[in-house]
Amino acid sequence: MGQQTEALIQFHRCLNLQADFVPAKSQIKKILEAGGVAVPDEVPCILQVVSEYLKEPCPITSLSGSQGPTRPEVLKRTLHGDEGEGKGNREAHQGSKVKHDSGTECCLSLCQAVSFLPAAEEDEEMMMRKEDGHGKDESSHCRAKTLGVLTVSDFECPLCIRLFFEPVTTPCGHTFCKNCIERSLDHNLRCPLCKQPLQEFFKNRKYNPTALLQDIMTQLFPSQLAERKQVHDAEMAELSNLTKDIPIFVCTVAYPGMPCPLHIFEPRYRLMMRRCMETGTKKFGMCSYEHGKGFADYGCMLEIHTLELLPDGRSYVDTVGGSRFRVLKRGQRDGYHTADIEYLEDLEVDGSELEDLQHLHDSVYQQAQDWYERLGSRIREQINRQYGTMPDTEENIQASSNGPAWCWWLLSVLQLDPAYQTTVLSLTSLKDRLGHVRLVLEYFSQS
Ligand SMILES: [Zn+2]
Ligand SMILES: [Zn+2]
Ligand SMILES: [Zn+2]
C-alpha cells in the first residue's frame, strides 16, 4: 500500500505538470479502479480524485512545495552517479530492472524523470525574463525551460570546480576535465572520487571527450563554454611564453646542440612534459641544482625531439640543447620551478681581436683533438655512441650565437662539476670559454 501511495503521489505530480502525460493518467486509473474508485476522464477531476483518495493532501502539497530547492541536488546526484546515494538514483536503477508491463514500478522511474521538468510558474517566469532581454523565440524558450532544471554548476569538474573543459568519463562513470584527470593520474592511478583502480584506462590513454556532455553544454551554456575556452586559451598562451615563467627542469647542465636524454617519473615533470607537448612549444629550461637558490642562475633550453610514454606513466624523453639563458626571477607553477629569463648570445668581435680569437680557437681545437686521439679506442667508441663524434671546426667561428659546436661537445664529454659547467655556460665571450676549455684540457692531459 505504501508503494501505491508513493506511486500515486508521483503520478499526481506528473499529471499536474503535464496534463497530457498519458502513462500517468492510465496508471492512476489502474490503481484507483483496483481500489474500487471511479475515475473521471478530465485531468483536473482526476487530480482532485487522487487528492481525495489519498485523504492526506499534505504529502502532495509538501512534495511539490519542496520541489524547487531539492531538485538540483537530486539531479546532481544523478548526473554525477554517486554510488546510488540519492533516492532518485536508486529507484531509477530499480525501475530499469522491472519489465514495462509489470505495473507501477517501471513508470515510477519514468515519472521521476518527468518530475525534473520545471513547474509551470517557474517556466513562465523564465520566459518573462528572456523576453525582457533578447525577445522571445523558439530556441530561447527551449533553453529557458531547461535552464530551470540544469545550472552551470551541474557541469562543474569536481577537480577544478570549473565548467568541464574537454570532459572525459572514466570506466567507473565519473567525469572530469581531460587535463584534470591526467594530473590526478600522475599521482594516483585511482579515480579521485570513488577510488576505483584506473590502470587499464590509464594504460590506453584513450581520453575521448564525452561527446553528449559537450553537446549539452554547447546547447545550454554557449556563452559560459566560450568563456571557459577563453580561460583555457589564456592559460595555454601563458604556458607557451618562452621568456616569462618558463618551466625549469632542475637536474643537470645541458649544452647547446648536445643531446640530453631524460627519464621522467616525478609527477611534476610529467605535467611539465605534457604541457610542453600540448602547447606545442616542446621546450623547457634545464638548470642544475644549486643549494639555497633551488637552481642555478644560468641554464640551457631543451627541445623535445621524441617522447616515449611508458604504460606506468614514466617516460623517456630525448631532448637537444638550444639557447642559453640567464635567470632573472624564480617562480613556481603547480609544483615545478619556473623562471623569467633572458637569452644569452656570444658577443661578436672583429679586426685584430677576431684574428687573435681565431688563433686561440685553432690552438685549443688542436689541443682537444690531441686529447681525443690519445683516448683508448674503447673509450672513444663509448663517447661517440653517447655524444656523437667530435665536431669539425666551423669556417666562421662566430656564425652561431653559441659559438663553435665542438666546445659544447667537449664540455659534455669531460663531465665536469655542475657549478663549473654552469660558469662556462654563462660566458658570452668565446675567448673566455676557450680559455676555460684550455685549462680543463691541460688538467685532463696531466692525469
Ligand atoms: Zn577540471
Ligand atoms: Zn569513479
Ligand atoms: Zn562511439
TrEMBL record:
Keywords in alphabetical order: Metal-binding, Zinc, Zinc-finger
Gene Ontology MF annotations: ubiquitin protein ligase activity; zinc ion binding
Family annotation (InterPro entries): Lon_prtase_N (IPR003111), Lon_prtase_N_sf (IPR046336), PUA-like_sf (IPR015947), Znf_RING (IPR001841), Znf_RING/FYVE/PHD (IPR013083), Znf_RING_CS (IPR017907)
Gene3D superfamilies cross-referenced by the UniProt entry: LON domain-like (2.30.130.40), Zinc/RING finger domain, C3HC4 (zinc finger) (3.30.40.10)
Annotated ranges, domain Lon N-terminal: 236-445
Domain of life: Eukaryota
Domain RING-type as annotated: residue spans: 157-195
Pfam families xrefs: LON_substr_bdg (PF02190), zf-C3HC4_2 (PF13923)
Protein name: RING finger protein 1
Native organism taxonomy: Eukaryota, Metazoa, Chordata, Craniata, Vertebrata
